[in-house]
Design a protein that fits this description.
Blueprint (H helix, E strand, L loop, with lengths): L17 H5 L3 H26 L9 H30 L7 H19 L5 H26 L5 H23 L2 H35 L17 H14 L4 H19 L11 H24 L6 H28 L8 H18 L14 H23 L15 H8 L3
Helix pairs in contact: 2-3, 2-4, 2-13, 3-4, 3-5, 3-7, 3-11, 4-5, 5-6, 6-7, 7-8, 7-10, 7-11, 7-14, 8-9, 9-10, 10-11, 11-12, 11-13, 12-13
Pfam families: NnrS
Keywords: Membrane, Transmembrane, Transmembrane helix
Protein name: NnrS family protein
Length: 424
């Protein structure tokens, strides 16, 4: 399989305005939107909590906060990634212009409803979220049918799980069913970790090879293809066990196994001195935090000294957050026709994100620094700083007119190994 895109038909005229350039490809529009939402939403939530403002919600604000971060910030990253990567993987023309703006409008309507926090229009926000997720599923199915390929079906499967969890969460919000709202929001987060496992497996190989050989004349890094879907498969097993109501001991070990699947991906980052390149560290760090968080969830069920919520924050805030930052940085750079390495702002953003995680979960009892315990305002500021730092470096690049065909998104070559894994 060639690493270069071979799009069907003409790519169309290059837009002449900054808004047109943003809508020229999915990553240009949705990566900045996701970064802005990721930066501002936690700050808004902390402000509301700190001022003790009334929340017109039938579920606790903490559950709503988690839902908005997952569906809002990470949802925008998902749209931008798949509308950019799927055309590369299927050698088809990408979505441009109006379809992207319609997706952005649906996503934006739901975020506005979430910001207002009014149950009276909650169904409108839920409908908008379900529409953009459904449209994304149909888009991938349409590409699969046109190209007669199954390489997108794993993503379709996980998107369907996300759709189901999202619909259940919205129903629970409307009914005021706190337990169902909490469980379905957790399931949405775990489903996103499944998508993360798929994405990392397909991105890590070509990015590592590009770091090891910038000339792209060789592929020195070739992991075993049988490990491609290990982490997502183990997450699915743990989710099924949890939803089936298995006892805590059984589900605890299932979540530990799911975490181990991500830790297996960390081993792929040991490629000599190049392991310390920011591009590699972002990918391995994402897997390490996702795996550590899932194992913390499992061991918490077995009686460990930390809570389920600490594990959730490590996996969803740390693992998913760093994974999103990695996709933003590497894919955004290469698709805007720039070469590696990533700029220094990406390294700073990663450090700020990790610092935010430390302050969010607290380390009292580990080092005795009680002043770090639950430092929510500082954690929110550091988190916002991470994504705003990325935005300051990359938005000027995205606001420049596209020049020629975009460089291939990491993941195109990665499907060469995916094909082997399914016996093609």
């Amino acid at each position: 399989m060639s690493c270069g895109p071979v799009h069907e038909g003409p790519s169309g005229p290059v837009p002449r305005t900054p808004l047109g350039w943003l809508g020229h490809e999915g990553f240009r529009l949705f990566f900045p939107l996701g970064a802005i939402h990721a930066a501002l939403w936690p700050l808004i939530w902390v402000l509301v909590q700190g001022l003790d403002l009334p929340m017109a919600r039938m579920v606790p604000a903490s559950i709503w906060h988690g839902y908005e971060l997952l569906v809002g910030a990470y949802g925008a990253a998902l749209i931008g990634f798949l509308t950019t990567a799927a055309p590369e993987w299927t050698d088809t023309a990408p979505l441009r212009g109006r379809p992207l703006w319609w997706l952005a409008a649906l996503w934006g309507i739901a975020r506005l409803v979430g910001f207002l926090g009014w149950d009276g229009i909650g169904m409108l926000g839920g409908a908008a979220d379900l529409l953009w997720m459904g449209a994304l599923i149909l888009y991938l199915l349409q590409l699969s049918w046109r190209r007669k390929t199954d390489i997108l079906l794993a993503f379709v499967f996980w998107l369907m799980l996300l759709f189901g969890a999202m619909a259940t969460s919205r129903l629970a919000f409307a009914l005021g069913d706190i337990d169902l709202a909490q469980q379905s929001t957790y399931m949405f987060g775990f489903g996103f970790l499944g998508v993360l496992g798929l994405a990392l497996a397909r991105i890590a190989v070509p990015v590592t090879n590009l770091v090891l050989d910038p000339t792209e004349r060789s592929s020195p890094f070739r992991p075993h293809p049988g490990r491609l879907n290990l982490a997502p498969g183990l997450i699915l097993l743990a989710m099924a066990g949890t939803l089936a109501g298995l006892n805590e001991t059984v589900t605890g070990f299932l979540w530990i196994a799911a975490g181990a699947g991500f830790m297996d991906r960390v081993a792929e980052g040991f490629v000599g001195r190049q392991s310390f390149r920011a591009e590699i560290l972002l990918l391995t760090g994402s897997s390490a935090l996702a795996g550590s968080g899932l194992m913390m969830i499992g061991t918490a069920a077995l009686g460990a000294g930390w809570s389920l919520y600490d594990g959730l924050h490590v996996a969803l805030m740390g693992g998913l957050g760093l994974g999103v930052l990695a996709v933003y940085s590497v894919a955004g750079l290469l698709h805007a026709n720039h070469s590696l390495p990533v700029p220094w702002q990406t390294r700073l953003a990663g450090v700020l994100l990790l610092a935010s995680l430390v302050f969010r979960i607290g380390i009292d009892g580990v080092t005795g620094l009680a002043w770090l315990e639950r430092s929510l305002p500082l954690a929110s500021v550091l988190w916002a700083g991470a994504f705003l730092t990325w935005l300051a470096a990359y938005l000027p690049v995205f606001l420049r007119p596209p020049l020629g065909d975009p460089a291939p998104l990491p993941g195109d070559a990665g499907f060469a190994t995916a094909d082997i894994a399914v016996g093609e």
